[in-house]
Amino acid sequence: MLFCDGLLSSLPYFTGLFARRGDSGKCFPGFFTFAWRGRSFPLNPWVVLGLKTDLCSLKTEPPLNTTMPHVSTNGIQMFYEERGSGEPLICIMGVTAPGGVWEAHAAEWSKHFRCILGDNRGVGLTDKPEGPYTTAMMADDYAGLMDQLGIKQARVVGCSLGSVVAQQLAIRHPEKVKSMILMCTWARLDRFSLYTWQHMMKCKATMRPEDFMHYVQMLIFTKPWFDNDDCWANMQQGLKDAATNATPQPVHAMEAQAAAAITHNTISDLKNVKCPTLVIGGKDDVFTPKWMGEEVAATIPGADLHLYDKAGHAFHWECLADFNPRTTEWLLKH
């Protein structure tokens, strides 16, 4: 189990991970900012919950090869960013989270791949139409993004809600998916998970932003993470910063994304997935329990499965030092 060791005590060192989206100086949906060299950069509160200090060695300057355009796809304007070069890797994030949350992983993957970090429908700088959304709809958003970028086929990585969107992309557009990694994924919800998503929607609608963040932290991290002093301090700072975020994700957009998660059911379709697949998660995940990933891996022909001990929904941060090289090696092979 890996913990943050004095993490974010000096934010400027994390410029290579978090500097993004120009110098407007304003917070984007789901972000708060930090200042560096006279400019303000948005920083997603899901990230300021604890990471390894050895990330500081990645970069101390803003990332290179960064583009920040929108494309028209499936009736919306979709924002995306790029990192690196090579064969394309489409990165699809989870509920409430824009594409920038991938930075801690894209910093590694971009050494080998052209990483496309999209803001999902309903968050970040992508349009936020009224819902409900579906995972099929969101998969078609990414199919259109690939068409606009001239990408015929790509590797795909999806996290949580993004993982079920990735499933739909492989089901609905199989020719577009070379291989995929499904992080903390599911094929269907049980009643407990339905209750969890419904409660999350109510929390978003009724709680102060810092209280909603408090609930999210409880869902995604495990006890050892809370017990680490540095991680705990940074989580508390994350709550304070969430309280002053001027532009959180709108309630209607979070509810629309949650509706996509709730209605997702691919249990009868996953047997038709042909691309190589890695299902990866944490054994102590209370948000998407391990039986969900095990079911997906058992249903997709030939899928690989890896579950981390003593890790939760945020296993990819809790076990970052293993997750990044493990997934990079798998992607290079597939």
Q: Your description of this structure?
A:
This protein has 334 residues and is an alpha/beta fold. The chain has a single domain, classed as Alpha/Beta hydrolase fold, catalytic domain (Rossmann fold, 3-Layer(aba) Sandwich). The protein has helices at 15-18, 103-109, 135-148, 161-172, 191-206, 209-220, 223-227, 229-243, 251-263, 290-299, 315-318, 320-333, and strands spanning 32-36, 39-43, 70-73, 76-83, 87-92, 113-118, 154-159, 177-183, 277-282, 304-308. The strands form two sheets. The protein has an eight-stranded mixed sheet with strand order 3-4-6-5-7-8-9-10, with helices on both faces. The chain has a two-stranded antiparallel ribbon with strand order 1-2. Helix 3 (135-148) crosses helix 4 (161-172). The chain is globular. Residues 1-64 have low confidence and may be disordered.
